[in-house]
Amino acid sequence: MRKPIIAGNWKLNKTIAESRELSAQLAKSLKEIDDREIIIAPVYTALATVADVIKSSPIQLAAQNCYPEKDGAFTGEVSPEFLQDAGCQYIIIGHSERRQLLNETDHFINQKLFRVLETGLKPILCIGETLQERENNRMLDVLTTQIKGGLANLTAKQMATVVIAYEPVWAIGTGKTASAEQAEDVHSFIRGLLQELFDSKVATQTRILYGGSVKPNNVDELMSQKNIDGALVGGASLNAEDFVRLVQFEN
Ligand code: 13P
Predict the structure, then answer these.
(1) For a designed S-S bond to 83, which of 6, 11, 15, 88 qualifies (C-beta 3.0 to 4.6 A apart)?
(2) CATH code for the domain of 97
(3) Could you list the residue range(s) of the whole structural domain that residue 201 is in?
(4) pLDDT digits over 185-209, tens only?
């Protein structure tokens, strides 16, 4: 019932030429896939080029961030409208790198989420605890605050296109994956929270992705967990062969 999503977050990697090449390889290898959603998120400068390369493939385009205004005097920022114009269907918001490096707050992330929905695009809301928070038994509180803050004032109806990505900060780019059981426990907790905050329909329909060192050798086990509906992938999404294998996960 929940269509799986494999999403590649390219972060600050790949020039326009490199993005064109990687997306062309993916479009060629993944053209028959229709039982799972495939998303790639290149840097802003490569979005329009990649949109053109993947336009007749099942691959969808995401931006890695946005600014919660439509247009105007916001030097250096890019709004959901302009990302839609560049060909995006999804926008990643609240990635832990932005929370940590740019001090993004749950309130700011919530404003972005509303604007993404208003534009008719689909948000991928990232949440996740640091190692210290996990070790101090604060993980569930932190995740609850991020979910409540990020999804504040949303109706159950507005939740229909929201995707959540659980990315434990200690597992990002470190080669340390949460074990399938650890990830499943948290995903099940998040689903319970959605039930509490919204209703059982939202809880059963919302896709919750796992992110943090997802690789070809662990994707099948992660994807076989009941509450894991997909993966948000950094490092392994930069290599065509690896990303194709991730999309072809077996569960
Ligand atoms: P890695 O897959 O490189 O750990 O990155 C995960 C991530 O941050 C995706 O958004």
Answers:
(1) 88
(2) 3.20.20.70
(3) 5-247
(4) 999 999 999 999 999 999 999 999 9
